[in-house]
């Protein structure tokens, strides 16, 4: 079964760090743009960070630039989101998504509309 599974969420104090993982099952991520998105209660989904298949384009939302880093593992089965200097406003459900149809060429990697395969999400809470 082709799916994405997120892990690594949890409760952390402000200033702390978490590393989220997006693991592919049933396929590898070599050819696909991968995005991390988040949605806080009562807010719209936000593109956090995205990486295209060639790693030639990497996007970060302004709110996370300098604090978050997206990366792929060498086996191309996992994409990571390293989150440092976390703030209470980073609290949200975090989702990873894959563009298996090439739609982000049209929509841009930062738009959720370009992604067709989504994980179930992992919760991140930043609180003292």
Write the layout of secondary structure elements.
Layout: E1 3-7, E2 10-12, E3 18-25, E4 33-39, E5 46-51, E6 58-60, E7 68-72, E8 78-83, E9 92-99, H1 104-107, E10 117-118, E11 122-126
Parallel strand pairs: 2-11
Antiparallel strand pairs: 1-3, 3-8, 4-5, 4-9, 5-6, 7-8, 9-10, 9-11
Helical/strand content category: mainly beta
Report the order of strands and helices. EEEEEEEEEHEE
The count of strands amounts to 11
Low-confidence stretches: none
Number of helices: 1
Summarize the main sheet. Answer: 7 strands, mixed
- State the helical fraction: under 10%
What is the CA–CA distance across the termini? 39 Å
Average pLDDT, all residues: 94
Rg measurement, Å = 14 Å
Description:
With 128 residues, this protein is mainly β. Helix content is 3%, strand content 45%. It has one helix at residues 104-107; strands at residues 3-7, 10-12, 18-25, 33-39, 46-51, 58-60, 68-72, 78-83, 92-99, 117-118, 122-126. Strands 2, 4, 5, 6, 9, 10 and 11 form a 7-stranded mixed beta sheet that branches. A 4-stranded antiparallel beta sheet has the order 1-3-8-7, with no helix packed on it. It is globular, with a radius of gyration of 14 Å. The termini are far apart.
